[in-house]
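Researcher: Structure prediction, please.
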Amino acid sequence: MKERKVLFLIFLEFLRQLFRNLLNLIFLMTKMSFGSVAMIFVDLIVMIAPTSGYLDTVRIMITNKSPAAFNYNTCLILLSAHGLKILYYIYHPYAIRIFGQSITQFSVAMVMAFLKYRYSRSGPDSIQRRQSTSSIHDEIVIHRPKNKFAYFLSITSTVTFGEFMTSFFLYALAILSLFYLSYFTINETATVDAIGLIANLIESTVSVPTFIKIVCYRDINNVSNVLILQFVFGDMMKLALFILSGTPWSFIAGALLQLTLDIILFVTYLQLLFCSGISSPNDQETLIRRSSFSAGIEQNNENNEMGALKGVQEPIEDESEEIREVNRRENL
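Model: Predicted structure follows.
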């Protein structure tokens, strides 16, 4: 009871501070000119716009109550790239609106990961899998290695959101340790610049998982239309924003590389959506599963019919044997 009371008091204090900050913000905005307020809203739109495609992916996951739209590689790229950008901002501040983009994309990646594990355990597909196996817990225990540290090193093998966060913090701790070791022993400027370069190189590959799915595997199932549009037009606007904001050259180079991939991705997506009649791999697998299921039902029906006919024939044969026995006795 005491712990709950303490947590409740902490939560009330948090709400009080939040309400106080909101009042201060409203008070400051009333003293600003219309142009200043408009620029604040423009900055907010610039910060939130790069997350529109991922927010639509979140919508798809919630609507379908399924993790099918989730992509591990995309989520990990967002977390690593923007996590490093946040670290880079601490030691090399850049435009606040660009920093806001990193915060929003890092946050939406966490939301996608949470929904993935939530619907993996409670969605219709998960329930069906549990019904088809004797015990999902036994299966997890069998495949989970005895060494927990080795288990958490494979972040994609985690089965709960808590385990995912544990693995994430282990990697974050390792990266921070290497960063500070290099920062204090080798060279401060070179270390910080290296973090910025690595972050932007990683971010430039954020569309690669979707690129492989669409361009290589010709599959557009569970892909957000908004995400595809965001990749192309968002990268164009981001490149212009980087140039106008005077961001470091590593940011601009990463944006150029990302835009090149996304143009190829966009053209292929339009081709598959409007010009191609070839079914995607997922559609073919679904058709095969449905055909197999229908064939199984038909086979079961045939077996039942044969069994029923056999059951009808057996009494007839028994009855004819009884008649022959009666006739034999009469002849005697």
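Model: The two ends are 97 Å apart (CA to CA).
Researcher: Thanks, that helps.
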